[in-house]
Give the backbone structure.
Amino acid sequence: MPRWARRIALEVTEVRIERPQAISEADCIAEGTPGGPGAIPGYGYHATPGEPYRWLWKQINGPGNWDANPWLRVVKFRRVAP
């Protein structure tokens, strides 16, 4: 896509390799799973950020994928003003 046609510009700030079971609480929050009451449907307790992340991972990728713990590319970026 030509630069003039883009709607937003992103700058990659960090690239690393990690496994999903090694994600930090801060990264879980950045991924959109802050935890708290009601974070997991039918879960009656106050969930930590890692619990809804694990639940969502299993919903998206299948139940055996979390246990397989595959290697992932983690790419962090920030929005750049035009």
Strands lie at 9-18, 72-80. Residues 3-80 form one domain. The chain has one domain: 3-80. The longest strand covers residues 9-18.
